[in-house]
UniProtKB/TrEMBL annotation:
Protein name: Electron transfer flavoprotein subunit alpha/FixB family protein
GO biological process, any: fatty acid beta-oxidation using acyl-CoA dehydrogenase
Pfam families referenced in this protein's UniProt entry, alphabetically: ETF, ETF_alpha
Assembly behavior: Heterodimer of an alpha and a beta subunit.
Species this chain originates from: Nocardioides pocheonensis
Record key words, sorted: Electron transport, FAD, Flavoprotein, Transport
Annotated GO MF terms: electron transfer activity; flavin adenine dinucleotide binding
Cofactor(s) annotated in UniProt: FAD
Note accompanying the cofactor annotation: Binds 1 FAD per dimer.
Similarity field: Belongs to the ETF alpha-subunit/FixB family.
Function: The electron transfer flavoprotein serves as a specific electron acceptor for other dehydrogenases. It transfers the electrons to the main respiratory chain via ETF-ubiquinone oxidoreductase (ETF dehydrogenase).
């Protein structure tokens, strides 16, 4: 069976959920192999983690030489592993870094690239939601090794034991890949909430909050959700840009998206309409967001959300 390479997305060795989703997808397409680029001391734990989601092989690349540089060396590592493994596809998590690695890799391998897939089936045939969600596109790479970046939450991670055979891979990094260097990095402020783009539930607030995000945040916390915002809320200075969802913000695709006090402008929809279930709370029953929802509540979010929070808390 053909190998499917999955680039492991991790923070200091802690494998992030989107990688388990990619491994689940890889299993549909062939034999999943994980590529872990990180400190050798973190490799064992990472290999254990990916093995539980079906990784038959784990390529471990010590990052001593790579750490401190931007993404170019990672593309070179993948190119070299691909030359050895001749995989049927390479899957990478969609995100700023993942997409840059994928783009560079596609040039190196002279392969076709598909970004932001929301589903990948045998073929591999991908599904993308494009033009602010107005079209759903099925696509297939026709040249070289298919390189596909997949949005978080595209698949529910399914545990399935793999052999997890560790293979230490020694890569050669070119001088040109070391031309851009990280000079400082600042960890994201710890909120105790999941990361917005990978959260299973997102609760967002818009102009309708009037700047009071407390009901949105309390409801999010009762559900273990991430908090998002519309551009109107961000432009008003109520939340930083990192919270913005939409065309000029982040794209999310959670199991459940709750839009509170958000009208549903096309630019906002572009960032959330591939969510599996959409719920809106809006006091205007004519608000466009209601065209999109699975479940809508016409009411004041300052009343509806605290009532919903109390109900969720009671049932815990
Ligand atoms: P509004 O449209 O003002 O809607 C507020 C809603 O809250 C209304 O429907 C109202 O009925 C409801 N409401 C008011 N009070 C309450 C209450 N107490 N309880 C319940 N409901 C209440 N927008 C984004 O979100 N993300 C983007 O990335 C983005 N990119 C853009 C890019 C471009 C190039 C442009 C031109 C625009 C972009 N926008 C983006 C802006 C977008 O067009 C809308 O202006 C914005 O999404 C509106 O935000 P909103 O829904 O919070 O505000």
């Amino acid at each position: 069976m053909s190998e499917i390479l999955v680039l492991v997305d991790h923070v200091d060795g802690a494998v992030r959920k989107p990688t388990f989703e990619l491994l689940t997808i890889a299993k549909r397409l062939g034999e999943p192999s994980a590529v872990f680029i990180g400190g050798a001391d973190k490799a064992d734990a990472a290999a254990e983690a990916v093995k539980k989601y079906g990784a038959e092989k784990v390529y471990v690349v010590d990052d001593t030489e790579i750490k401190g540089y931007l993404v170019a060396p990672k593309a070179e590592v993948l190119q070299q592993i691909a030359a050895q493994a001749n995989p049927a596809a390479i899957l990478i998590t969609s995100g700023a870094e993942g997409k840059e690695i994928a783009g560079r890799l596609a040039i190196k391998l002279e392969s076709g690239l598909i970004t932001d897939a929301v589903d990948v089936q045998e073929g591999p045939v991908t599904t993308q939601s494009v033009f602010a969600g107005n079209f759903t596109v099925k696509a297939k790479v026709t040249k070289g090794t298919p390189i596909i970046t997949v949005k978080p939450n595209a698949a529910a991670p399914e545990e399935s034991a793999g052999a997890g055979a560790v293979e230490k891979f020694s890569a050669t990094i070119s001088d040109s890949a070391k031309k851009a260097q990280i000079v400082a990095s600042q960890p994201r402020e710890a909120t105790g909430r999941p990361e917005l783009t990978e959260a299973a539930i997102v609760v967002s607030g818009g102009r309708g909050t009037g700047g009071n995000f407390e009901p949105v945040e309390n409801f999010a916390d009762s559900l273990g959700a991430a908090v998002g915002a519309s551009r109107a809320a961000v432009d008003s200075g109520w939340k930083p840009h990192a919270f913005q969802i939409g065309q000029t913000g982040k794209t999310v695709s959670p199991q459940l998206y709750v839009a509170a006090g958000i009208s549903g402008a096309i630019q906002h929809r572009a960032g959330m309409q591939t969510s599996k279930t959409i719920v809106a709370v809006n006091k205007d029953e004519e608000a466009p967001i209601f065209e999109l929802v699975d479940f809508g509540v016409v009411g004041d979010l300052h009343t509806v959300l605290p009532a919903a929070t109390a109900e969720v808390t009671k049932r815990k």
